[in-house]
Amino acid sequence: LKQYKQAQRYQLQQLRRLNNAAAPETTKLFINGEYVESQSDQWIDVHNPATQEVVTRVPKATAKELEEAAHSAQLAFGSWRRTSILTRQRKMLDLQQAIRDNMERLAASIVSEQGKVLSDARGDVMRGLQVVEDMASITNHLQGQRLEVSADMDTYTVREPLGVVAGICPFNFPAMIPLWMFPVALATGNTCLLKPSERDPGAAMILAELCKDVGFPAGVLNIVHGSHTTVDFLTSDPRVRAVSFVGGDRAGKYIYERATQNGKRCQANLGAKNHAVVMPDANKEHALNAIAGATFGAAGQRCMALSVAVFVGDSGAWISEIAERAKQLRVNGGFESDADLGPMISPEALARAEHLVQSAIDEGATVTLDGRGISVPKYPRGNFLGPTVIDHVTTQMQCYQQEIFGPVLTCMRVDTLDQAVELINGNRYGNGASIFTRSGACARKFESSVEAGQVGINVPIPVPLPMFSFTGNKGSFLGDTNFYGRSGVNFYTQLKTITSLWRKQDAEDRQATVHMPT
Ligand code: NAD
């Protein structure tokens, strides 16, 4: 209750500020440890998705500002890379405490700019916080190998930072995804240029403030804003050695190609179409509740949202019950205590999802629950789509071919598990897939044959905790080194292998050897 009241207070402050101020506050750049008002003449309005009020204005950083940020990161790298690992570990511990202390502020900023409900916004922060906690063990993650390969001769490895790295973020997890990136980059000794989504930069700005408060040196983390021009800078400037991207396919493919063509490492998590297979022997209550929660939570705007349910055999009879569960979910502004799902990010995203629902009807599917035009009395201007369930979907339909990224469940029916797996493997994406069953043999078969980065067995959203890595398959991932965990550490570091010879003082070489040492 105390946390809830804190968040309510924050919302009231925001509203008062909006009402009093002639123009909303601008979002600053964070360069060399300072908040910098951009000199740009191009600004993007950030709207509260529940009310359409302009929460803030985000600059498209100018060429000079981008240059200053990169210069600052490059300068800071010189000393940050030589900081002791214990200091970097201590900073991670301090940062995790600061994030914990500011949880409500971060969550409230996410509700205001992104729209998700407050409890879910706390989850957004929490899942990112866990990466920071894991990076407090950087002393374990960075240990190398050592072997005495010959008398007096040792070979050993060290993982060294790359230099300046860049992160480009999507709108749907304003805290978690920046936290997938910069804590791993910084703990491993890099400096970072982070570009939050221009649609909800508030959480990243609070995180930068916390980094400053706990004493990360100036220039170690810089925040630059903008869209294409900023992205073009980050993927071409020679000082940037690696680019982390999370977002949609179009931007992701462009960024991956541009960054790698310019000689940079790149990891890119892209779009998704996550399937849940429901076997007839599944625990029905668990499976249906899990699917409803994972489809409609966060208004379906999670990359791991379950958007396709594949009912095998007799389980097809349960589809109407999913719709019943979905009907009970309450759609409201994210600060309302009874809200289960909030608005979608923008009127355009809402219109696109509504269009895909209509296309399903036009192409012969059946809409068993239609959330279009839902009334949310307190927020008449919000981008709301109520939970929507579409049955009898086929693989040719647009609603199946495209990522809807809204609270829409498309239902399909097959006769066997083999057919379900074939269907999933035929999809161009491979982010997550889950199976609901009581059979270990079915689960085992699914696990080994399905082409997906994250596999859930009776688990709807199997996002790995940070001691593992977030993996992806097929069209959902470009690159070969995944986000966070051991893979994340490898992405932001390069191996150096040293072979040393320390002989006794009186040993003497008698002549030069010209053959390959063996
Ligand atoms: P988006 O691709 O529109 O934006 C992501 C970033 O790319 C933003 O910072 C944006 O400024 C930049 N960008 C957008 N268009 C660009 C272009 N044409 N050229 C250069 N840069 C561009 O993505 P979004 O709408 O913010 O996020 C939703 C998408 O992200 C969904 O497709 C979702 O599946 C995906 N996502 C994937 C994961 C994952 O781990 N696989 C996680 C979260 C979100």
Distance between the termini: 69 Å
Radius of gyration: 25 Å
Say which molecules are bound, naming each kind only once: nicotinamide-adenine-dinucleotide
Question: In which order are the strands of the major sheet placed?
Answer: 14-15-16-13-12-18-19
Instruction: Bin the strand percentage.
Output: 15-25%
Pfam families: Aldedh
Protein name: methylmalonate-semialdehyde dehydrogenase (CoA acylating)
InterPro entries: Ald_DH/histidinol_DH, Ald_DH_C, Ald_DH_CS_CYS, Ald_DH_N, Aldehyde_DH_dom, MeMal-semiAld_DH
GO molecular function, one term: methylmalonate-semialdehyde dehydrogenase (acylating, NAD) activity
Fold and architecture overview:
By secondary structure, this protein is α/β, with parallel strands linked by helices. The protein has 17 helices and 22 strands. The protein has helices at 2-20, 63-80, 85-101, 103-114, 118-135, 138-141, 176-187, 202-213, 228-234, 249-261, 284-296, 319-327, 347-362, 398-401, 417-426, 440-449, 485-491, and strands at 29-31, 34-36, 43-47, 54-59, 146-150, 153-161, 164-168, 191-195, 221-223, 240-246, 265-269, 274-278, 306-312, 366-369, 388-391, 408-414, 429-430, 432-436, 454-457, 473-474, 477-478, 493-501. The strands form six sheets. Strands 14-15-16-13-12-18-19 form a seven-stranded mixed β-sheet, sandwiched between helices. It has a six-stranded mixed β-sheet with strand order 9-8-7-10-11-21, with helices on both faces. Helix 3 (85-101) packs across helix 8 and helix 5 packs parallel to helix 7 (176-187). The longest helix is centred in the N-terminal third of the chain and has 19 residues, at 2-20. It is globular, with a radius of gyration of 25 Å. The N and C termini lie far apart (69 Å). Residues 168-173, 195, 197-198, 227-228, 231, 246-248, 250-251, 254, 269-272, 303, 403, 405, 431, 470, 472, 476 line the site of nicotinamide-adenine-dinucleotide.
